[in-house]
Inverse folding.
């Protein structure tokens, strides 16, 4: 069972960003499954992918926000740094932590909350159609 389930209420209405959000959710779900199976090599690989992909996604999202003159773009970027710092800390300490599931629950809640509350704030600054690209 996935830890996070994507649905259309998470959409920001821009295909590129929505696809990236789905990919982050998939990576969290896959890593959580690896924890449940105690597959440490796969878990480490998925955490690395999550960290790398989140940085790519956050750069893309922040570029869109800057290009659209989103007034809270710096605050939003700070929230992204908080997430990548947490994932980085988790990766560094993941085999020391005794409750890996709780860490993933934290990350999944952070990401879900961020998409549903923070990312949806910038929808009015996105293009009317996805034809403009980002």
């Amino acid at each position: 069972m996935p830890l996070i389930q994507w649905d259309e209420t998470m959409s920001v209405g821009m295909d590129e960003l929505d696809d990236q959000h789905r990919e982050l959710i998939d990576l969290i779900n896959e890593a959580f499954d690896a924890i449940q199976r105690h597959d440490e090599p796969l878990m480490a690989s998925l955490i690395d992918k999550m960290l790398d992909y989140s940085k790519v996604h956050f750069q893309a999202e922040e570029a869109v926000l800057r290009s659209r003159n989103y007034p809270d773009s710096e605050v939003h970027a700070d929230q992204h740094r908080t997430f990548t710092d947490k994932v980085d800390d988790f990766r560094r300490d993941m085999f020391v932590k005794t409750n890996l599931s709780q860490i993933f629950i934290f990350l999944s809640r952070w990401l879900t909350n961020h998409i549903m509350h923070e990312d949806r704030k910038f929808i009015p600054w996105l293009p009317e159609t996805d034809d403009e690209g980002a």
About this structure: The helical segments are 15-36, 40-67, 73-93, 100-118. Residues 40-67 form the longest helix (28 residues). The radius of gyration is 15 Å. The CA atoms of residues 5 and 62 lie 24 Å apart.
